[in-house]
Amino acid sequence: MIEYPVDQLPQLIDDLLQCDTTTRKNKLLADAKEKLSTEHLSLLFEALPKEQRLEIWQLLDEDTQHEIFINLGGDSCRWLLQSLEEAEGFKLLDEVSVEELLELEEIIPERFVDYARRQLDEVQTKQYDLAQQYNPEQLGHWLDFDALKVSEKLTVAGARKIFQKGLPQYTEVIYLVSRKGTLIGEVAINALFKANDNDSLLDYANLDVSALHADDDLYEAAEVVIHSEQMAMPVVNADNKLLGRLSVSSAYELRQEVTDEAAAKAGGLREDEDLFSSVTKSAKNRGIWLGINLATAFLASWFIGLFGATIEQVVALAVLMPVVASMGGIAGSQTLTVIVRGLALGQVTDSNRRALLKKELRVGALNGCVWAFVIGVLTYFWFNDGMLSLTITIAILLNLVAASLSGVVIPSILDKLKIDPALSGSVILTTVTDIVGFVTFLGLGSLLLL
């Protein structure tokens, strides 16, 4: 049997695209279903050009189709519904869970959402309605509804009968609730192994439970769970009624969403953009940031124009300008990446920002001294001009320090202004480092070389 571990996904894509027989494609897909997770099957599907997708889609069984559909990005999901017969699209929604529907309702047409809602049973409908009481930025909208909760009056024997039916994933405690559903406490499952059947669960309960609140920020709650060293944490409403839980698995998925979104925004892209989106849609998604970058480039060019006379007399300055700009841009981007990641994970605060700034300035100064010296020496041997070498040495040093400063200050200011630093930070930073580098280099050139 052909093995396709995750790191060999590109080979499987190549095999499918180069295969010219249905029998061989069925064999490849069967092996892929056995070896790959549903998430990677979805990535495989999205990696196929749209002309081949429907052909591969028809070779998949209904369960696999459903799993792939649920994990597709927004663009791919909408494209698939548009490409299939409407009856086939509705069929994909026959057995969606509440959690899946909450994710899909943000990206699929309203008629498909209405159809999926009608397929929910009574319990699922109540869960869906509960989630709708909170906006998508709040934890209550994305609850895990599989929390194991029992009456506070239950005995150990009663709990053991429940255990025999199986436990949800990431379950290490059972939650005790009152008749009205109020969270009373939690009992560690391993504490009941040697307990007497007639003992009350309350005898083994931890009554000081750390709980999340349904109106908490979703991503902040995820970080709390990750750092709690618990498999899951309960979620309550304002009346302390147990609504559900947030598992560590869901928390890590949410953290990954933040990372993916930041990476996409840093390039001026949408996180759910299809690899094979139409040319016009892709151009539209990216065009706005090309326009913004153009404006900042003209701003940097204007500053260069102020020193036109200097450049005309010392042509070597024009030759070396890209070196100054590149070094500052790279140094600033390195610092920016560290700070944006820290902000996303909640690690950068007002209390540690000053210490972080001092550290990054030291890094910038150290790298500035080392690389300014190296570039200065290379410039001297290239142009045999000591003053030109001194000019670029000072400019590189100052620009790397300014880049480190900007890499901390710019994302911090944007974060305070509620502007995503991952989206706009790199554009602003590049503009700042370019202007500082050019003005410093050309200004020093005017003073020292003319």
How many alpha or pi helices? 19
Q: Within the CATH hierarchy, at the fold level, what is the topology of the largest domain?
A: Tetracycline Repressor, domain 2
Strand content: 5-15%
The largest sheet has its strands arranged as: 1-2-3
Q: Give the class from helix and strand content and strand pairing.
A: mainly alpha
Give me the strand/helix succession. Answer: HHHHHHHHHHEHEEEHEEHHHHHHH
Let me know the number of strands: 6
Percent helix among the residues? 55-70%
What layout of secondary structure does this protein have?
Elements: H1 9-18, H2 22-35, H3 38-46, H4 50-58, H5 62-71, H6 74-83, H7 86-91, H8 98-104, H9 110-118, H10 122-131, E1 149-151, H11 156-164, E2 173-177, E3 183-188, E4 212-213, H12 218-228, E5 232-236, E6 242-247, H13 248-266, H14 279-305, H15 308-313, H16 315-344, H17 350-383, H18 386-416, H19 421-449
Parallel strand pairs: 1-2, 4-5
Antiparallel strand pairs: 2-3, 5-6
Helix pairs in contact: 3-5, 12-13, 13-19, 14-19, 16-18, 16-19, 17-18, 18-19
Descriptive account of the structure:
- The chain is mainly α and 450 residues long.
- It folds into 3 domains: 6-137, Alpha Horseshoe (MgtE N-terminal fold); 149-257, CBS-domain (Roll); 279-449, SLC41 divalent cation transporters, integral membrane domain (Tetracycline Repressor, domain 2, Orthogonal Bundle), CATH 1.10.357.
- Helices cover 64% and strands 6% of the residues.
- The chain has 19 helices and 6 strands.
- The chain has helices at residues 9-18, 22-35, 38-46, 50-58, 62-71, 74-83, 86-91, 98-104, 110-118, 122-131, 156-164, 218-228, 248-266, 279-305, 308-313, 315-344, 350-383, 386-416, 421-449; strands spanning 149-151, 173-177, 183-188, 212-213, 232-236, 242-247.
- A 3-stranded mixed beta sheet has the order 1-2-3, with no helix packed on it. A 3-stranded mixed beta sheet has the order 4-5-6.
- Helix 3 packs across helix 5, helix 14 runs parallel beside helix 19 (421-449) and helix 16 packs antiparallel against helix 19 (421-449).
- It starts with 8 loop residues before the first helix and ends with a helix.
